[in-house]
Give the backbone structure.
Amino acid sequence: MRFRTFGRLGWRVGEVGYGMWGMGGWSGSDDKESIASLELAASKGVNFYDTAQAYGDGRSEQLLARLMARHSGMRIYNATKVPPKNRQWPSRKGVPVGQVFPRTYVREYLDISCSNLGVDTIDLLQLHVWQDDWLDSGELQRTVAELKREGAIRAFGISLNRWEPWNGIKAVRAGFVDSVQVVYNIFDQAPEDELFAACRENNVAVIARVPFDEGSLIGNLTLDTTWLEGDWRATYFVPENLAATIARVDAIRPLVPEGSTMAEMALRFVLSNPDVSTVIPGMRKMDNVEANVAASAAGPLPTDLIAQLRAHRWDREPTDWSQ
């Protein structure tokens, strides 16, 4: 495992972190298998774990608590998220912050997450959706300052809405956030336009999420792929998106290096960018852990391959299925 510095916080985190959404709420998740995968990750040096109260109504946080209890001698960084009070993913422009993250509500969910995680202090508390115009009222700034002053949280970050990397630059430049979580992969390269530069200039950590485009960049989807009822992927890969995505995945298949896999290429593309502090692929199975840690060990992609992959950038606009 290679390590990187987590922005101005100075934390040394594995460049491959652990995304815990899938084990909290996706179909096919099994707690026994999830725990075995978490244990394997810890043994390989994975020390940054991203979860959220909304992932299985605390289930994911509770799994992380079990891991931290068994590895009390290892510095494990826990990062969790406060769900929006109005339960709208993504957030809607024009909705006041008081309806989404009022002070008492943020404190309430901080306490819930602390209980689920079995800790008194959250390493990184994030808001699960974001709008830059929420800064205008000053309410969030006061809440975060209080929580840091009290020692309830060590750091604060925001998770940006899908395909809106520009909608967080104001928060970065204002010095409000210690980290930004953003969708970044072979298709979604837009964070490179402005966001990454702003983070670099302000020493804000970048958490890259969805490196496999919700699984499409693993290369296994077909037009006949289906998911069980209630699985979020069924609402994301609607026919319109599935067909377009498969066409684009097929277009990059010839670029996969001999002896490698599309998933490894996709992860190494993200890790080739030094602006990324850590990437958080979902790892519900032990072979996922093995493969993703191996991608870190393999290092950056060759520059000529990165240049070829840049041609496959896919700029999209948020839709009703892209939450």
Summary: The beta strands are 3-6, 11-14, 18-19, 48-50, 77-82, 122-127, 153-159, 179-183, 205-209, 278-279. The chain has one domain: 3-310. The CA atoms of residues 238 and 321 lie 8 Å apart.
